[in-house]
Write a structure and sequence with these properties.
The chain is of the alpha/beta class. Helices cover 27% and strands 23% of the residues. The protein has one domain (3-225): Spore Coat Polysaccharide Biosynthesis Protein SpsA, Chain A, CATH 3.90.550.
Length: 244
Amino acid sequence: MNIAIGIPARMGSSRFPGKPLALLAGRPMIEHVIEKALAADLGPVFVATDDKRIADVARNCGSIVCMTDPNHASGSDRLAEAVAEMDCDIVINVQGDEPLIDPAAIRAVITPFRDDAYLPMATLAHPLRNPDDLHDANVVKLITNAKGRAMYFSRAAIPFPRSGKTNALQHVGLYAYRKEFLLIYPSLEPCQAELTEQLEQLRVLHHGYDIAVTIGDFHCIGVDTPADMARAEQLLANKGVTSA
């Protein structure tokens, strides 16, 4: 498979403005993400952005840069514009706010495509580590069917733990798409479930497309707020990574 790794990045986060260039261990966060994507060693890495400041940092880190429209509603839309003329079969979406993403997780997300020539999209999950996460709206849960395809994603407790037990998984916000599907994605109408949950992947399920789920012991931490950044800084310090 001809694979490209895309990192959508914008400065206008409502909860954390300027997030991609916020310093983590003395370096812009986007640098950490690019390094992890390059370490996956699957193919070219590109940053899709509308901001020259992000573009300059990305180029200095060895990433390709694709300048995109500033009005995209999601990272998937931004990547779709970036890859329109790109020679690739599979596009991996590494979120620009995942500075601790494991390169092994990036490699794992493409596994289902090897066995299904028509699979449109794939993602990752791991078992819930903390029972309280089942009821935490900031933790996205999912359940799968017998074929390892996603049945539903939710911020709520799914399935409802009537017996006190659950088989819910915690979603890891890493995606891979067949290029042909990624180009279709922006034309799909948003659905009510997506708007209610604020989870764009529900649009894919609503329109009848499969999302394969690979389950593993994937350790990731998304940085949505300055408090998350402080937590990521501490995790890096625990690994012996200090400010540059």
